[in-house]
Design goal:
It is a single chain. This protein has a single domain (3-171), classed as Aminopeptidase. It is 37% helix and 16% strand. The chain contains seven helices and six strands. The model has no long low-confidence stretch (mean pLDDT 91). It has helices at residues 25-42, 59-69, 100-116, 129-132, 149-154, 157-171, 202-214, and strands at residues 3-8, 46-49, 73-80, 90-94, 120-125, 138-145. The radius of gyration is 28 Å and the shape is elongated. The longest helix has 18 residues, at 25-42. The protein is α/β, with parallel strands linked by helices and 228 residues long. The chain has a six-stranded mixed β-sheet with strand order 2-1-3-6-4-5, sandwiched between helices. It comes from Clostridium isatidis. This is N-acetylmuramoyl-L-alanine amidase. InterPro entries: MurNAc-LAA_cat, N-acetylmuramoyl_amidase_3. Residues 63-173 form the MurNAc-LAA domain. GO terms for molecular function: N-acetylmuramoyl-L-alanine amidase activity.
Length: 228
C-alpha cells in the first residue's frame, strides 16, 4: 500500500488554461483527481488531495502538504495551452531523469497517449516548485492542450483520472479493478412462501411447526405437498 498525494492544479482565483468555450483547466484537474482517488482507494491505496474544492493553493503549499503527510508519490494534474490552437499532445514533467519519478512518468504518459491517441511530447525535466521541493517522486502531467477546440469539446476528465490511476497501480504492481456494483434484481410475484423443510410424515411436520411457534415465529402453518 502506497500513499499518494493527488494535486489538482490551479483552483480558486487561478483558473489555469481556459478554452475558447470557457472550459476551465482547474475544473478538469479536480474532477480527474477525484476519479483517480476513487480508483486508487478502491484498490487499496491511500490518497490525499491537496485541494478538494475550487480553492487556491500556492505551489509551496502543495509541496508542503505532500511532505508533511509523508507521501510516497506526488501526482499533479494539469492541462496545457498554447497560442497555436492546432497544437495537441501529452507531456509529463519530472525534476530529474534516471529516477523513480521518470519510471512513473513513463507509465502515465504511455497510458494517456495510447488511450487518447495523443501526440507523445515526451518526458521533460523542469525545476517547478512541486517537483523540486517534494521529498518523494513527483510528476506533473500536462494531459492535452485545452487551447485546441476539439480537445476542449471532447476531453473526458474522468477518463483522465482513470488513466492516471491505472498507470499508478501498474507502477506498484497492481492491476486496476473497477467492477461496477450491480443492484440485485428482485423478481416480481404476488407473494412469497418461506419453506423450512419437507417431511413425508405428518407427525414430523406438525412437530416442526410447533417448535417454530414455541420460539416465537408467527404465521407458521402446514401446507400439503402434492403427490407426483
Amino acid at each position: 500500500m502506497a500513499k499518494w498525494v493527488l494535486d489538482a492544479g490551479h483552483g480558486g482565483c487561478d483558473a489555469g488554461a481556459v478554452g475558447k468555450n470557457n472550459r476551465r483547466e482547474a475544473d478538469i484537474n479536480l474532477e480527474a483527481a477525484y476519479e483517480a482517488m476513487r480508483l486508487l482507494e478502491k484498490n487499496g491505496e491511500t490518497v490525499l488531495l491537496t485541494r478538494a474544492s475550487d480553492v487556491y493553493l500556492s505551489y509551496k503549499d502543495r509541496a508542503k502538504i505532500a511532505n508533511d503527510w509523508g507521501a510516497d508519490y506526488f501526482i499533479s494534474f494539469h492541462m496545457n495551452s498554447f497560442v497555436d490552437p492546432l497544437v495537441t499532445g501529452t507531456e509529463v514533467f519530472i525534476y530529474e531523469k534516471g529516477s523513480k519519478a521518470e519510471e512513473l512518468a513513463s507509465l502515465i504518459k504511455a497510458e494517456i497517449v495510447a488511450n487518447l491517441r495523443s501526440k507523445d511530447r515526451g518526458i521533460k525535466e523542469a525545476s517547478y516548485i512541486e517537483l523540486r521541493e517534494t521529498n518523494m517522486p513527483a510528476v506533473i502531467i500536462e494531459a492535452e492542450f485545452l487551447s485546441n477546440e476539439e480537445v476542449e469539446k471532447n476531453f473526458d476528465s474522468k477518463k483522465y483520472g482513470y488513466m492516471v490511476a491505472k498507470a499508478c497501480l501498474a507502477f506498484v504492481d497492481k492491476v486496476l479493478l473497477d467492477i461496477p456494483k450491480m443492484n440485485r434484481k428482485i423478481p416480481t410475484r404476488e407473494g412469497w412462501r418461506v419453506c423450512v423443510g419437507y417431511y413425508k410424515k405428518y407427525q414430523d411436520a406438525e412437530e416442526e411447526m410447533k417448535r417454530l411457534q414455541r420460539i416465537g415465529i408467527k404465521g407458521v402453518h402446514l401446507v400439503p405437498y402434492p403427490k407426483e
